[in-house]
Each structure stands twice: as structure tokens, then as C-alpha cells.
Amino acid sequence: xxxxxxxxxxxxxxxxxxxxxxxxxxxxxxxxxxxxxxxxxxxxxxxxxxxxxxxxxxxxxxxxxxxxxxxxxxxxxxxxxxxxxxxxxxxxxxxxxxxxxxxxxxxxxxxxxxxxxxxxxxxxxxxxxxxxxxxxxxxxxxxxxxxxxxxxxxxxxxxxxxxxxxxxxxxxxxxxxxxxxxxxxxxxxxxxxxxxxxxxxxxxxxxxxxxxxxxxxxxxxxxxxxxxxxxxxxxxxxxxxxxxxxxxxxxxxxxxxxxxxxxxxxxxxxxxxxxxxxxxxxxxxxxxxxxxxxxxxxxxxxxxxxxxxxxxxxxxxxxxxxxxxxxxxxxxxxxxxxxxxxxxxxxxxxxxxxxxxxxxxxxxxxxxxxxxxxxxxxxxxxxxxxxxxxxxxxxxxxxxxxxxxxxxxxxxxxxxxxxxxxxxxxxxxxxxxxxxxxxxxxxxxx
Length: 446
Hints:
By secondary structure, the protein is α+β, with helices and mostly antiparallel strands. It is about 50% helix and about 10% strand.
């Protein structure tokens, strides 16, 4: 039988005390019922090993239309503020053979050749963003998220998918829409309006791409649609997944890593002096501040026994908390709440998912972050938080983990001898950008 915590812990939709809530949930047990925004109840899972089990195995599904009775029966209103996270029909919300069918064309389109070809362009985009930062007067406070962390992934993902530039075009619209997409404190009216604008923008974009095909991911996915691998709805919803996830997670990874390093100067010094690598710092950042705090809802396909006396009933929704798993003291020790680039367990996280739902875009995100971070700290070696005593305000989200703004001072500008990473940093980029990970797969020259 299920055990019910009473009263239910109501999750703050603004996400301002995410890790405090995670700690309180963890203290109640390995699986705890909580109340999500909009009054929806779900089981919250923080433990790393339990996260992996539920992510990798067939016990849970992400297909609400098959495995969430409350959604199927209409008990959960289609006007629920988070409904779009449930209603989309893409590879992340699919189960079993449907998931394999939908993931196959995504993997085929997201080729190593295409990613390799983009990497030099990533460096150009980063260097241009840094040039823009150098034009800001000395001593002026800069929002590094808006001025650096966000524009780079946005431009990269738009080039990858062939989204045309222009102030009044889909690039500008998507930037605005995606920034609202992850806001879980948004009003119902604004959430619905954002959804309408999102689908309208993508409908117009797909029409444009049908008239202007090119060597990009959107054209490749449209070919899969034309061959019968994807329905029109699945094409649209997979684009939503890839465009939003390809942007938001990388923005947060850059934002969070910069903030953690600047807030912990001793850790930054270890990276600067070569005692640890940039890869070490990025992996610890992924553990410490998962760019995506949770995986979206999953649903128990069958009764799931967590431990004797604690069972998640079939059909109940489940939150797999990437943020909670990253700070699991059972895996990362009693100091799991501390940012430590020398931590031996840093790579043991689920920030890019796990098992069959492991993120296809991980290599590109890692390469983007490495290019951005190495170039930033080379160009501004004395970069500093504008006010170290005041932590930046977190995003209004229980799904996306980052900051609304990242105020910094650009000290030491122009110190780098040449644009781009130093040789040892370029080697780290080459290592991280291999689609096969670090297991010896050929990697591109940057």
C-alpha cells in the first residue's frame, strides 16, 4: 500500500527555494507525495540510484495518454498551467516502441557530422559575444546571462535548425516564447497565450522551411515526416522539444558554471592553475546545479515498490528530480551541498537524463559550454560577481535551474592574447564534443 505524507508539501511554483524543498522532501523518505502547481499531486524522487532505476526501466512511462488515468479521464484539466508539458507528443513523452520510433529520426538527424561542422561557428559566435562585452564601459554592471550565456545557445540552436534571422522573424519570437515556456509561476492566461504563440510561430516556420529546405535539422525531420516516420503533430512537438531543450539547458549550464566558479574563488583557482580541468568544473556544475531540475512527469506503469511498506500505485505521476539526485548525500557524501571541482563523484549525475531518454544534444551542449567558458575567462581573467554578498534571483521555475540575471563586472578585459581557447582548452573541447563521449570516438578539430 502507498504511504501518504500528511500534509502534502506544496511545491512553490516560483522555484525560489528549490533546494530547501528538496532537503525537506528528502528528510521524509525516498518517495514523498507533493502538490505541484495547480494542485496536482505527484511522488517526488530525490535519490540518485532510484532516479536511475525509474529513468532506465519500464516501470515508469512519460506518456500521459497511455499511463496517467487522471489525464485520460479528464480529471486533470487541459487548462492546467503545466499542461503543455504533458500534452506534447514527442520522443520525451513517448513510451516503449513509440519512443524508439520517434527517437530514431532525431538521432539520425543529429549526426556527428552536423555537430562537428557547427563547432567552428560556435567559436565565432562566442568571440562576437565577447567583443560586444568589451565595448561596455569599464565598471558598468553587466547581466552576463542576457549578454552572453543566452545569446550563444540561441544562435547556435537556430543555426542548427535553420531558423532564419531577422528582428521580426521566428528567431526573435522563439527567444521570447522559450523564456516564458519554463516559467512555472506563469498565470494560466499567459501560459495559454504563450502556447498559442509557440504553435503559431512553428507552423509559420515549417511552412517557410518547406519552401526553403536546407542542410539543417528541421529539413531532416521534415524528410522523416514525409517518409511516414512522424505525424505532423509529432514533427511539431519534437521541434518544440529540441528547440527549447537545446536552448535552455545550455544557457543554464553556462550561467550556473560561471556563477559557481565566481562564488567559489578557490575552486576557480584550481581550474586556472590546471590542477583540475574545465571538464571537471563543468561536470561538477552539472551535478551541483542540474540545468533542468526535473525530467517532467512520469507515470507508474505498474505498482512500484520503493521499499517494504512504500509503494507508488499504478497510474500515479512521479517527479524524477535531477536537482535532488545531484545533491544526494548517499552518493556524494555529507558535503553534497558544496561545490567542489575535485569531487571524485562529480560525473555521477543524471543532468542529461539516463538510459533510453539520455539527451541526444549532450555533446553539443558540453562543447558549447566549454568554448564559452574557456573563452570568457581567457578574455576577462578577473571577471567578478557584481555583489558577492547577494545571490542572484533564481528563475521562476521548478523545471529550469538558472538565474533571472547574473550581474558581473568585466575586470581584466582584453587580457587574452588571441580569440578562442588556448591549446589545452581546445583539447578539452575536442574531447567533450565527441558524440561517443570520451571512449575513443573520433573527435573534431576546432
